[in-house]
Amino acid sequence: MPEMPEVQGLSTFLGERAVGHTIARATVSAIAALKTYDPPIHALQGQAITASTRLGKFVVLSCGDELHLVFHLAKAGWLRWYESLPTTLIKPGKSPIALRVALDDGSGFDLTEAGTKKSLAVYVVRDPQEVPGIARLGPDPLDEAFTRETFAALLDGRRMQIKGLLRDQAVIAGIGNAYSDEILHAARMSPYAIADTLDGAEIDRLFDAMRETLTEAVAEASGKPPADLKDAKRRGMQVHARRGEACPVCGDTVRSVFFADRSLEYCPTCQTGGKVLADRRLSRLLK
Ligand SMILES: [Zn+2]
Asked: Tell me: the pLDDT tens digits for 165-205?
């Protein structure tokens, strides 16, 4: 799933390539992906793109006339950019393409989604805050106003595991399963640590790890074309999706905890005092 750094990379890329151009045509081929009907999608036709921004894991393309094309790539969505957009017709329901946007110079992009479970979401709105997922976003951890005190206040009183808190978009915007693994590894902290029990030194460590991990990943992603962003993400990972490999910090074996629809990765030596965390699937079966 693309998270803040990749989404920022896509947004920056569109800022360089699409801003200043006019939308010649926007075609929805996966009708379920379009979550709004007023303004209609064809209202985008003839609109000049004036800005490309990121809010959490959403990309917002702002157009003249107070219109915004907003999209969220969800788990298996991606953006494919074309200097010369194919002219072939898209067969609805038979293609991974959810939305095709053609620009005035013949370039453009597709939003695609792999797999059968479709969650990619497209919105055409007059105000990005009309998108429910944007309206409930917590603060952005790379925002200048997001200080160590802001972070401490978010943890305060929350009796939940830190891994879940970091991924909760309503608490902090933009972090998902992969970067929360990376942040916790950098902070040498168990994913099961309870948020409101962290002491001052632990909050310092976690805050610094979050800022550094995300800042580095955003720097790595910026300036890369969409086709290169996924590999850049994978290369930057120390523990996420590296089960069985050696931890680059201490050499211990990276381990996973499996859940129904995902897994988390961590290093026992760096993060849990050497303790191996129970596999949630197995322990449930054994009960
Ligand atoms: Zn380690």
From this structure: 999 999 999 999 999 999 999 999 999 999 999 999 999 99
Q: How close is the Cα of 251 to the center of ligand 1, in Å?
A: 6
Q: In this model, does residue 229 exceed pLDDT 50?
A: yes
For residue 271, report the distance from its CA to the centre of ligand 1, in Å.
Answer: 7
- Pair 62, 123: CB distance under 8 Å: no
Closest CA relative to residue 167, chosen from 254, 262, 82, 63: 262
Q: What is the pTM of this model?
A: 0.94
What does the pLDDT average to over 71-78? Answer: 95
> Given a cut of 90, is residue 287 above it in pLDDT?
no
Pairing type for strands 97-103 and 108-113 reads: antiparallel
Place of tokens 């996966």: 30
State in Å: Cα 77 to ligand 1 middle.
Answer: 32
Which residues are identified as catalytic? 2-3, 57, 262
- Res 281: pLDDT: 63
Q: In what order do the strands lie in the sheet with 23-28?
A: 23-28, 97-103, 108-113, 77-82
The four Cα atoms 185, 157, 147, 171 give a dihedral, to 10 degrees, of: 70
Structural tokens at position 221:
């992603």
Distance in Å, CA 254 to ligand 1 centroid? 7
Residue whose tokens read 């490309």: 52
